[in-house]
Write a structure and sequence with these properties.
Radius of gyration: 29 Å
Helix content: over 70%
Number of helices: 6
Oligomer: single chain
Order of helices and strands: HHHHHEEH
Number of strands: 2
Strand order of the largest sheet: 1-2
Shape: elongated
Structural class: mainly alpha
Distance between the termini: 47 Å
Largest sheet: 2 strands, antiparallel
Strand content: 5-15%
Number of domains: 2
Low-confidence stretches: none
C-alpha cells in the first residue's frame, strides 16, 4: 500500500502522464506536419541522387526556402535580419545550382570572337578523329592565340567566382546558421 501513498506513486504517475502527453502531442502535431512534409519534400527526394554535389544543394535550397518565411514571420527576435541572411544563402545556393558562371563570363568574349564551334575532323586513321575548336571571328594564328589566352583567363575567373559563392555561402551558414530558429 505504500506504493500509492508517496513519491514512488507520484513519479509513476508523472511518467505515465508525460508519455500520454507526448503521445497526444505526437498525434496532434507530429503526424499532420509529417504528412505535410512528405508532400513538400517528395519532389526533391524523388530527384535526389547520391553521386553529385548538386543534389545536396537542391535539398539545401528547399530547406532555406521553407525556413526564410518562417523565421521572418515567426516570433524570433531579430527575425527579419535572420531571414535576410537566409535569403542571401538561398540566392547563393540558387546561383550555384544554375551554374551560369561560364555563360556570364563569356558574354563579351562571344560577341568579340564569335560563337564557339566544335568539330570532330576525321584523320588518316579511320578509328580516330581530331577535335577542332574554332570561333567565327578568329582570322589568323595571332588572333587564335589571343582568343585562347582570354578564354583560359575567363575559365579560371568563372571557377573562381563559383568557388567564391560556395565559400561565402558556408561562411554565412557557419557564422549565423545556429541562430536560425524560432
Amino acid at each position: 500500500m505504500k506504493l500509492f501513498a508517496g513519491k514512488p506513486f507520484y513519479k509513476s504517475l508523472k511518467r505515465i502522464n508525460s508519455r500520454f502527453f507526448r503521445f497526444i502531442d505526437y498525434i496532434h502535431y507530429d503526424i499532420p506536419y509529417g504528412i505535410k512534409n512528405l508532400f513538400i519534400w517528395a519532389p526533391i527526394i524523388w530527384k535526389d541522387r547520391s553521386w553529385d554535389f548538386i543534389y545536396l544543394f537542391f535539398i539545401l535550397h528547399k530547406k532555406l526556402s521553407l525556413m526564410e518565411p518562417s523565421i521572418r514571420d515567426g516570433h524570433c527576435v531579430g527575425g527579419p535580419k535572420r531571414a535576410k541572411d537566409i535569403k542571401t544563402c538561398r540566392l547563393l545556393v540558387k546561383r550555384i545550382i544554375d551554374d551560369n558562371y561560364y555563360e556570364n563570363a563569356f558574354i563579351n568574349h562571344d560577341k568579340k570572337w564569335g560563337e564557339l564551334n566544335i568539330e570532330f575532323v576525321p584523320t588518316e586513321d579511320k578509328k580516330l578523329c581530331k577535335l577542332e575548336v574554332n570561333r567565327d571571328n578568329v582570322k589568323n594564328e595571332k588572333e587564335r592565340e589571343e582568343e585562347r589566352k582570354q578564354s583560359n583567363f575567363l575559365y579560371k575567373h568563372s571557377d573562381k567566382m563559383k568557388d567564391q559563392d560556395v565559400k561565402l555561402l558556408f561562411k554565412i551558414m557557419s557564422k549565423k546558421g545556429l541562430s536560425w530558429w524560432d
